Amino acid sequence: MKNIIICSDGTWQSPESDTATHILRIARGIAPEDAAGNKQVVFYDWGVGSDGNPLTGGATGKGIDKNILDCYRFLVHNYDDGDAVYLFGFSRGAYTVRSLAGLIGNCGILRREHAGRAAQAYSLYRRRSRASAPGSSKAAAFRRDYAVPGGGRVHFVGVFDTVGALGIPAPFLGTLGTSRYLFHDTEPGDIINHARHAVSIDENRQDFEPTLWTPKAGVDLKQVWFAGVHTDIGGGYPNRALGDHAGQWLAREAETCGLAFEPHFLDNLTPDHTGPQHNEYKGFYRAMRRHVVRDVEPVVHVSVRRRWEDDGVSYRSPALRGLLENVGGDWGKIQVVH
């Protein structure tokens, strides 16, 4: 048995980026073995638009298919019966790994002798019809004929701020074939054991509205809201003290579910609720004048309350204020997660 870890980064992110996101740091921080001595193997998937043509890939989502298939092929080439699969993603990388989990639920993990059918599996998954859905006879037959016994499971999915429609600015939608990339559904699949989602409270670009998971019986799901904008939560700024709360929380959740990290990774997480929050409503997005206040669910990290109540920070988030108004200002009606 071994742990297979797939890490998919956000748009324009690569191993040579000036600032390492949580995803790249997780990939670099995986220990060679877990506590039981099981081998851990890692695949890092570059962000969409990070190779060749960043403008096309980043603005339109071109390359998403390749990213999902690259991750799937790595899994097919390395998976053995009994392995535990861990998936991590940020932004469109979160879309990538959630789609990968959907692909596995639909078509299973191919047996290595059928690795050449990866594109066929992906085509079946993307068909988006009742005849090809996971419960269909066609999908069941595909899994039976080509996938590992039982189809394969995903032990853990951990994502940072999944955004709807790939985060592609709305004026482009419908003209660039984006509709085919929308999620099949927002529920975590039956094949997932544990699902974790760190969500931004303060991201205000309408085109970056979060794509939340809907709770599902049988899946251990935790979806927690954090102070900061989209890239704060993903750990993509040089000063990441505020965003390290999300990084530390997700790492600890993965540890609890059996993953092992190098000490240097955990030691370099330095969360601080007083850390700076960045502004992403500028440049291209400000010119588009598409602004929204997120509807925050009543499950927030403890650092959010500390930041709100710290007079030295002056944190007056419109989104958090909206949540507090909904509960009559009573923090007792909000689940505060440590």
UniProtKB/TrEMBL annotation:
Instruction: Name all T6SS Phospholipase effector Tle1-like catalytic domain ranges.
Output: 2-253
Where is the secretion signal located?
none
Provide the organism lineage as a comma list.
Bacteria, Pseudomonadati, Pseudomonadota, Gammaproteobacteria, Pseudomonadales
In terms of superkingdom, the source organism counts as: Bacteria
Keywords of this protein's UniProt record, alphabetized? Hydrolase
InterPro entries hit by this protein: AB_hydrolase_fold, Tle1-like_cat
* Organism this protein belongs to: Marinobacter persicus
Q: What is the protein name given in its UniProt record?
A: Alpha/beta hydrolase family protein DUF2235
The GO molecular function terms of this record are: hydrolase activity
Does the record carry Hydrolase as a key word? yes
Pfam families (UniProt xref): T6SS_Tle1-like_cat
